[in-house]
């Protein structure tokens, strides 16, 4: 009897293992059943022993770490308010010049300068011509502009009339003087040395 029982069990096992190999459909069905069993065991078994399923990690506890600020780098607080100054605000505009009665010294200097400007006989050098205007001209204008002029190119030889006032302020004046050439517009300014010519151009 024991021998028959063992043979019977062996025959049953052979039938079970041989069933998947009988056809491709049996084999695919067997593999699907095995995959479901393995997945179920992988999920149920860890829950039974108190562990998370395979492939899933337990959430890490979050901790807040604070760092002391490095000297000179500051913190994440609001930026400090810049210091205020009690100094008065500088004016970005220049004051408007004040009109004034024409200054007689300014008119005299303009006439003397014009007389020296038209005085350029043949053969006069630039240095000689400049010396005639030096007492009536600012040093900056004499050096920067008039020193580059050839006296032979001055288009006038004499003054032909009295100056007419264009604008008159407390520290400057603009006059127009006629010559035997073009009219000359002359700007005279008040300096520490007195009134001096600071610019000239052909009048329109």
General description of the model:
The chain has five helices and four strands. Strand 2 (172-177) and strand 3 form a beta hairpin. Helices cover 35% and strands 14% of the residues. Strands 1-2-3-4 form a four-stranded antiparallel beta sheet. It has 204 residues and is α+β, with helices and mostly antiparallel strands. It has helices at 2-18, 24-49, 104-117, 126-133, 139-144; strands spanning 164-168, 172-177, 184-191, 194-202. The protein folds into two domains: 2-49, no CATH class; 104-202, Nuclear Transport Factor 2, Chain: A (Roll). Residues 53-58 and 63-77 have low confidence and may be disordered.
List the SSEs and their pairings.
Layout lengths: L1 H17 L5 H26 L54 H14 L8 H8 L5 H6 L19 E5 L3 E6 L6 E8 L2 E9 L2
Antiparallel strand pairs: 1-2, 2-3, 3-4
Provide a short characterization of the protein structure.
The chain is an alpha+beta fold and 204 residues long. The protein has two domains: 48 residues, no CATH class; 99 residues, Nuclear Transport Factor 2, Chain: A (Roll).
The whole-number mean of residue pLDDT values reads: 77
Strand order of the largest sheet: 1-2-3-4
Percent strand equals 5-15%
Total strand segments: 4
What structural class do helix, strand and pairing data support?
alpha+beta
The CATH topology of the largest domain turns out to be Nuclear Transport Factor 2, Chain: A
* CATH architecture assignment of the largest domain: Roll
Largest pleated sheet? 4 strands, antiparallel
């Amino acid at each position: 009897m024991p021998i028959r029982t063992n043979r019977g069990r062996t025959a049953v096992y052979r039938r079970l293992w041989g069933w998947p190999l009988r056809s491709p459909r049996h084999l695919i069905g067997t593999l699907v059943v095995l995959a479901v069993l393995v997945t179920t065991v992988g999920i149920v078994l860890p829950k039974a022993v108190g562990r998370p399923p395979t492939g899933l990690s337990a959430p890490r506890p979050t901790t807040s770490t604070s760092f002391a600020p490095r000297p000179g780098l500051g913190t994440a607080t609001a930026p400090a308010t810049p210091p205020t100054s009690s100094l008065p605000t500088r004016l970005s505009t220049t004051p408007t010049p004040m009109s004034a009665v024409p200054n007689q010294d300014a008119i005299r200097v303009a006439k003397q300068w014009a007389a020296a400007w038209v005085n350029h006989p043949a053969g006069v050098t630039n240095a000689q011509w400049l010396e005639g205007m030096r007492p009536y001209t600012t040093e900056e204008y004499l050096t920067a502009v008039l020193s580059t002029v050839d006296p032979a190119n001055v288009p006038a030889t004499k003054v032909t009339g009295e100056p007419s006032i264009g604008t008159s302020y407390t520290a400057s004046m603009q006059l127009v003087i006629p010559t035997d050439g073009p009219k000359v517009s002359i700007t005279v300014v008040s300096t520490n040395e007195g009134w001096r010519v600071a610019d000239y151009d052909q009048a329109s």
